[in-house]
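Task card 7
Instruction: Convert sequence to structure tokens.
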Amino acid sequence: MRLMCALSLISAVLCAQTIEGNATDALTGLPLPGVAIQLYKTGGMPARAAVTDSLGHFRIEGLPAGGYFVLIRKEGYSDWHASKTAGDHFRVSKDETVRLDARMAPLGTVSGRVVDPDDRPISDALVRLKGVDALGSFYATTDRSGAFTLKNVGAGTYILMAQSSKEPTDEHAVYATTYYPSFDFREGAAKIVVGPGAELLGEDIRLRTAPAWRLLGRLVASSGDPAAGASTVNATWDGESSSECETVGARTRADGSFEFPRLHRGRWSVTAVARAGSAHDCALDATGSSNTRQHAYMHAATMPIRE
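Output:
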């Protein structure tokens, strides 16, 4: 059961238009000081704001009668339900008090390390935690020891993946996008379940290697001559989703040629941008057999740039 931020509204007839209530930790039941209460009028105009005191209590007095909705936020706690409740309007009538109590679920953390096939740490690897039945994605970069921590993670089920632009010791290999704990295809990924306030440790990813493909190409002008001036060429791996894409860059030589020495298997889109700013795209599939040097080669079609 998803435990986020539960709100309850209780009306009582008193002598003025007032909203008051308490904020508590959904796991411990303890009061939460410093919770931001933002009240809006129906239609979205800000009305009043308050912050809970040391007992988790707040009170907003002297409100005009009318329709309102409220957002409730605190660092380290989920505001998913509070944001969703933004469309749940309520009315404050003359001489009425509305009571609003919020039970807020603490967010979790996911920690681990990224290592190579020989258990050596990989620094500067990009780690992504992507929701399966949860909202959003979370990102971190590994430190010198290969360690990472993903903070403020909402309750839900996720998949964890890592990418590294570093080069393996094998010159004919490249690190593949690797899914937790050590799979180079998404279907093999083990699901990670994060509960409210959970602290998951030891979620280590051992990177997989794959044969390296060498992409060679040439950038030319419409006349067939090498494109004038240095140009940038980007190769983007078309992952299963936009959050899994990977881009590497290269510069053209004087003869318009360019080279990507190590690309992993998959579909790559190549974009060239000349000095004048015009661009040309093409897509290539890294498929086929490696040669006797265990290097696979792709030759991009000549890429014309209109001057």
